[in-house]
Amino acid sequence: MGRQLSQYAAKTAAFHAAATERDVLKLNDRPFIRGTFSPNHAILLDVLARDEAQLVAVYGRRRIGKTFLVRETFGDRFYFQHAGLASGILKEQLAAFHDSLIRSGAKDVPSLKNWRQAFNALERFIVAGGSRRKKVIFIDEMPWMDTPKSKFVMWFERFWNGWCFVRKDVVMVICGSDTSWIVKKVFRNRQTKGAIMTKEEIQKKAW
Known about the structure:
The protein has helices at 2-7, 9-17, 39-48, 66-74, 90-104, 115-128, 152-162, 179-187, and strands at 23-26, 54-59, 78-83, 135-140, 170-176. The chain has a single domain (2-187), classed as Rossmann fold (3-Layer(aba) Sandwich). By secondary structure, the protein is an alpha/beta fold. The relative contact order is 0.21.
């Protein structure tokens, strides 16, 4: 695997040189095959070695292997992982997030009434893990969590911009099949200073 990673190093470096603000990984329509290694793996592995907080989005149509790619790449490195509910209302989304915190090892997590409380609980859980360990936070199908009047995006912005972005131990990986939501609510969001920003932008191209 190390040899394969080195084969893609030049291409990955070229992506970095041309980057501007955000990490973006857009998948094409070809599914991933178990056991294969691709430039997409190299891009995801690369963020673990950086000294700044990283936000990576993996998006594309359903059933092309987005979640499989993330899980195969990071393996057991996840510190916290969660998946949005396809048809869940706000109360159900928060309950599921609470369950994910508990399953990931968080202690004494109270019931969650809104996304402010949910992301505050995630902050406390990250702090509990110390500052030396790199923490991969994986949220799958994030667009489903943005239910009407939930103010999910506002509180996620606060969590990322005001807290994660200044740390060196957080790698945030978000995934979603709703491409328009990812592009509009994350990458083109300019409503707050430094909204959802990392150091560069990587766009998946034809290899």
